[in-house]
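Supplementary Text 2. Reproducibility record for the structural model of the 796-residue chain.

All settings were left at their defaults, and a single model was retained for analysis rather than an ensemble. We include the record here because the model underlies the residue-level annotations in Supplementary Table 4.
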Amino acid sequence: MELLRSNLSRVQIPEPTHRIYKHECCISFDTPRSEGGLFVDMNSFLAFGKDYVSWNYEKTGNPVYLHIKQTTKSVPEDRPLKKPTLLAIGVDGGFDNIEPEYEESYSIIILPDFVSLPFPSVELPEKVRIAVDTVVNAVGAERKEQVAAWTAEKKLVSEHALTLQQIKSGIVIPPSGWKCAKCDKTENLWLNLTDGMILCGRKNWDGTGGNNHAVEHYKETAYPLAVKLGTITADLEAADVYSYPEDDSVLDPLLAEHLAHFGIDFSSMQKTEMTTAERELDQNTNFDWNRIQESGKELVPVFGPGYTGLVNLGNSCYLAATMQIVFSTHSFISRYFSHQSLKMAFEMAPADPTLDLNMQLTKLGHGLLSGKYSIPATQKDATTGDARQEGIPPRMFKNVIAASHAEFSSMRQQDALEFFLHLVGKVERASNTTPDLDPSRSFKFGIEEKILCPSGKVGYNKREDCILSLNIPLHEATNRDELEAFNKQKAGKGLEENDMSSDEIVRPRVPLEACLANFASSEPIDDYYSSALKGRTTAIKTTGLTSFPDYLVLHMRKFVMEAGWVPKKLDVYIDVPDVIDISHMRSKGLQPGEELLPDGVPEEVIESAQPVANEEIVAQLVSMGFSQLHCQKAAINTSNAGVEEAMNWLLSHMDDPDIDAPISHQTSDVDQSSLDALLSFGFAEDVARKALKASGGDIEKATDWIFNNPNASVSDMDVSSSNSAQTPAQSGLPDGGGKYKLFGIVSHMGTSVHCGHYVAHILKEGRWVIFNDDKVGISTDPPKDMGYVYFFQRLD
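Retained model, structure tokens:
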């Protein structure tokens, strides 16, 4: 006890502003459930596993720690597993209630000799007792960040329930045997509480569900409330009542009366269907792995180094799929695992290692690659009965990589490609003082665009990139005859694809070679200003690569923009071979006999490439009483997407301090991370700013804008002959032969990159392995034709 008293000055009582870590080690994935428990530094309130706490003592000299150890409570074998009833984490009825229950024990540990004192104990100094009690009772920093996003709102009483008018039609609803009045559906049926019509629900993105007849009936009649048949039981509050005008699940306090109108005795009815909330929970807690990628295949779980799953933190599958592939590259393995120990990273980290990108990448790398955490869980998967692993939660890494990024720091689903670009940019900036150690360089390559003017003179635009974003030329489909026959059959029967099963639909099959050829082919640039002709003309642009990266990333543009920037997903297969050769895509630079275009583009030509407000949108907004300037700003800031979008922007920005300032393209604010991503591709800053402003901040649209507005960039980008340009070696870019082997696939299912689910397939030790969050198994049929992003490794 005297030893503790002599170190009281190193004990702090936590203030409300302190971040207290007590659920996970800040440099490993050890927890209180690990064999050695967890040690909380009573001065910094950082947590450390048994193998790492001595490092913290050596670095800080802090000797006093609270040791937390959790052991599983014994429960009856026949106890039913609790199923979550809320879309929430850390609350009663939430996700973590399906886990086993744990008993927690505490003790005070004094380093360096690990002297142990019991807690609680009246013999402990009062300062220590207060400090430890505060830590024990506090919500941990990890859990605060986890809980922040997932708690769903409780259902509210519908404003239509108390005034609902029911039609006296004499309809009596039987207790079973229901069928949609407009099709043959016998599941997912909804009873309209106004007229008693039984109709099927909405069609899901994956083809399941109904045929939208219930919602179409509401649009025709405006009858507001419907209850899902099969969810009505004696517990009426649990019944699924939906309000179409309120577009949400609601409570109907008069449901018993409304059901009695149709002769329904709820007290004797049995539950046969999931409610909307239960279905949403089911999709989040047990996303159907077989349906996503390998339907009907029995996947064998695999464990060991390099086979560690990542826990889904809530819509974080985009991060998991991306990081599994990134940490399968030699560059990231070498930088954050083979040649950097956890201790080395910790010693270099600032006072709070949870905020250090290098530390958290090293922690993640060791967590994924060491095999320490890739072991079978003590319990089998509750739904499938399969052996599973606990996986590791990339929570601290996500907090660091997503810091100051509005989307990635949220719990919403994100685009895996955008996250990859964000990651590469962050790693590159973090490595700017040691570029030789930058693992993101392994993805980088040079791109050269040759612009041929009708005068015969040429210009060369050079930049760097880390992805090849490929359009999909549907006219190059190899099964055109089958497609034509399918479309004729569909038209003859008057069917839509929504009316057909997935197996019946014939989808275009486009070879990857056709996508690469399309990228490298010549394309016209209309309205191009030629400095040789001193006027606008049509030029020809061809694109090639000045270097070949160690790892080639191909992005398939399956999500295209239709009129009004409405996204649409192409339902197409890409035939991807195991080995590709892109040697023919190497650019040749300035050729003998070619003459460069003269320098100089008039300022008015560059200015004409600035985003301009759509006059029709502005006129409609002005007619509503808004000022001309405000309407122009709204149109420009929403990329002229439409009146509704501009109106929403205007209403939410009326109080902006600069709303009355003149429009200035030079000082417009853009998201810094998006700007950094474009700068990492080699674009000049002012060009990148113009592009982001014109595209509403979307990186892919901004890239397209730059390509489609060469006059905005030609004066700023590197326009020179290949003789004076740097070689790949001089610019620090990797280079080699053009043959590549496929080793990673990020697949996506869903109607948008911001919803659905992402999964990774990786070629490891000669076999394909599927990484579906914390599920890791041998893949028998990798979806090579269904990828969203493909990763290739150079063979030489």
